[in-house]
Amino acid sequence: MRALVLSGGAGTRLRPITHTSAKQLVPVANKPVLFYGLEAIAAAGIVQVGIVVGDTANEIKEAVGDGAEFGLEVTYIPQDAPLGLAHAVLIASDFLGDEDFVMYLGDNFIVGGITPLVDEFRASRPDAQILLTHVPNPTAFGVAELDADGRVVALEEKPKQPKSDLALVGVYMFTPAIHQAVREIEPSWRGELEITHAIQWLIDNDRDVRSTVISGYWKDTGNVDDMLEVNRSVLETLEPNIQGSVDERSEIIGRVVVEKGAEIVGSRIVGPVIVGANTRVTDSYVGPFTSVQEDCRIVDSEIEFSIVLHHSSIEGVRRIEASLIGHHVEVTPAPRVPKAHRLVLGDHSRIQISS
Fold first, then answer.
1. Domain-embedded: residue 350
2. pTM of the predicted protein model
3. Which residues pair with 220 in a beta bridge?
4. What pLDDT digit, counting tens, does each position of 27-55 carry?
């Protein structure tokens, strides 16, 4: 069995971070979200992995290399433009050959990995096995309709009027039957070859398509809110580990990781928090669910429930919450200016102004 990992999307919902960085490499608890998927694939006993890459190919290749760090053998498959998930299967046909495979969206996160799901697929080998989960906003996802016996009868991509609240999770398992399906379908109104259309083709042609509704934690980390939520979830599992230096004026509370070379000076750190290597925190407060990458500086500031990427500095700022701060960013107080209110008010207006 092989794996196909999709890492070619533009990441528009995470801009401006993804103007200069691949969305799959934005870190969760100081580790790129893509790495969690690769580790899950390796844990399921899969070795041969094809990674579909686009404009950020060089960055992905530099981070993942040949895959040996994960116990994998990686082949890179270039995609000229993000033309849909089914298009990724189409261009990867030579790599996939006649083997079964798992397709994993590189910006998705599933707590607990995929080993039981892969084992189930290997044992029964339906033509397609899809994962579903209940979501509050199904219009943002591919949605499945099930019959009374729980069999998949229809799929629809981002429907305006969803027939269920069951969204497709970004992990799919296929036999080689999917190759004919992706060749048979036409581009959608978005100009993309949709994997939902390919799976629907299998259903319409009486192929065996099964679903598993997962109750565990899953997130598509395509936007800032979801990225912060995944970061929170991973940090909840943190084991305390102080390898850097903490001076006697500082206070460390709860599950905190201070990586080698990091310094905590006159500060209060309330976990779960991870402070990256060679980062210095001085006279500051770092609150729960915050991850700070390597080589950062936080001085005379307060921050919590946030992600700070490497080589960034925060100085003299109160207070930062629920934020994603990119690489090489400087955050400082705004210069003091005279306060004034500029008003254009209609007749008989009543206003209240805080002074």
1. no
2. 0.83
3. 108
4. 889 999 899 999 999 999 999 999 999 88
